[in-house]
Fold this protein.
Amino acid sequence: MSGHSKWANIKHRKGTQDKRRAKLFTRIIKDITIASKNGGPNPDSNPALRLAIQNARGANMQKEKIENAIKKASGAESANYQELNYEGYGHGGVAVFIETATDNPNRTVANIRSIFLKSGGNLGTNGSLSFIFVQKGIFTISEEFVKKQAPEFLEIELIDGGAEEIEVVDGKWEVITNFEDFGSLQKKLESLGVEAESASLVRLALTTKSLPLPEALKFLRMIEKLEEDDDINTVYHNLELTPELIAELENN
């Protein structure tokens, strides 16, 4: 176990918390909509919806908003979202993997291509970055729940359920698993009476690429533009966050 999260996102600029929170809520509502359309509005019989609701609660989304999103998803006028991924290389040849949920793929890919081209990058073919990014599952368990447990017992149970690594960050447990074990670990947490603060699939870069500071900042400006697009859920990249780069980001 360690005290620093490898999954923590570096804030590129200060003063963007409200924007990030609004984007998170937009993503969660899309997840609820997609899950409800695919598996029905009952979370008891729809694991994907149950997971989306769980993440909504972890983000402190109001119960009324969650219920409205489920109701709206069953309506005839509800948006039909497609979950599509895009891969490419940004400035300096840094790999970029983009996850989207969109009701207009033509608009989405046009926006992404435009951002890449204006930033000195280019889109690639799907699957071209499979050797760089590996998919993992991550569950965050609250400090309050952890305090009520015997740590050794809980750790053994989680490993038995498929946990590959456990990190303790600010009292919370971040439990990491292989993509294939995501479902079994989710069931193990449910059997233990654990409602994770959040649960998601993430992509971890197996290799990183370093750039001189000015080029690294230029690349991150492209990432920031991508993250601002409402159709884009998550952007992953393999830029090495050097101490010099982190210091620059924290001071701006």
Q: What stands out?
A: Confidence is low (pLDDT under 50) at residues 9-17. Strands lie at 82-89, 95-102, 122-123, 133-141, 163-169, 172-178, 198-205, 232-237. The two ends are 31 Å apart (CA to CA).
